[in-house]
Amino acid sequence: xxxLTILNATLSRRRQIWLTLLLGTVSATxxxxxxxxxxxxxxxxxxxxxxxxxxxxxxxxxxxxxxxxQLIAGPLSDQHxxxxxxxxxxxxxxxxxxxIAFVHSIALLIALRFLQGIAGATGQVLARAxxxxxxTGKKLTRFYAMLNTVxxxxxxxAPIIGGFMIRYVDWQAVFILLAxxxxxxALAVTWGLRESLPVDQRQSGGYSVAFVAMGKLIVxxxxxxxxxxxxxxxxxxxxxxxxxxxxxxxxFGLPPQTFSLLYAFNGLGIVVGSNLPGRLAKRYTNRQQLxxxxxxxxxxxxxxxxxxxxxxxxxxxxxxxLLLVILIGALLxxxxxxxxxxxxxNAGGASAxxxxxQNACGGIAxxxxxxxxxxxxxxxxxLFVCSTGAYALVRYQGHHMD
Length: 402
Fold this sequence. Notes:
The chain is an all-alpha fold. The protein is built from 16 helices and no strands. It is found in: Cell membrane.
């Protein structure tokens, strides 16, 4: 801990800004791999001659890869440092993205998306771990908020770029762009990121020891309810992400470009929400914020469910979804901060468990949210179930920690 304090104190303001931009971009693997091609889903569905559920399975397979990849990258980084796994992960991410641009089979697309997720997982898990290497306490909360702000820019610009691209080029160009981005990030990490985990603080004894140490975190009463809670919050986010393109484009008839702007505006809502915990920290504890925001998420999702009983109103749905993504942005910052701040050792393993829970829940929620096709019934149901489940877990964890 002393080493962390010294390292924290030596970071200049300029260095912190660079770290925020670089790690925010690195951690945006998920949004880049998913949000950029969302506007192209209807086009891809037609070209592959498949169903909406199978196209959504390409989202799920990427999320499953992102989840499993965390279990590889996290423990390995606790052993070998953060930088090398990041470089290797993004080189593979770029090459797999390029391969996807040449597939003609939905089965092969789904398989390659799984590999793309495994490679991209290094960005998500190690950005959190690097931040934990450098910061603790309120500084960690503020840095995660800044990371989420930078990260939140990508859901804003990615669908706009994707929607613009498919007006002029086929969907394959989206994955060529992802390949370029992956290889560019690998170069940026190579030349612009210092190793944050000193050799004397690394896990020894091989991968199995690091993996067991990560597993021990899961069974602790202080961790597992919060780990599942952050997973459910992420599940709520991906219930919206995976279903929104069909709900708003097919169900409500919005054109792809209008949907892209709407999706970008909701991405801005996530950015706003991510910064709420830092602003509320002076008046409320993390526990109070978690409880209050989850109650708000349950209430808004309940209203969205009730609205199904009345004639569909696109503006009402848009407004309620915006409120929900703001709350989700705040809840993701809070849950991750609380968990990582408790992880005084094995930050890579702790980050991996967070990523596993988040992407696993996101992968499960995505196809379920699309079960009602162009209706938002399944999406609304999943949003309510996820927020209610997260609230129950946070209450359970608080009760057993008192």
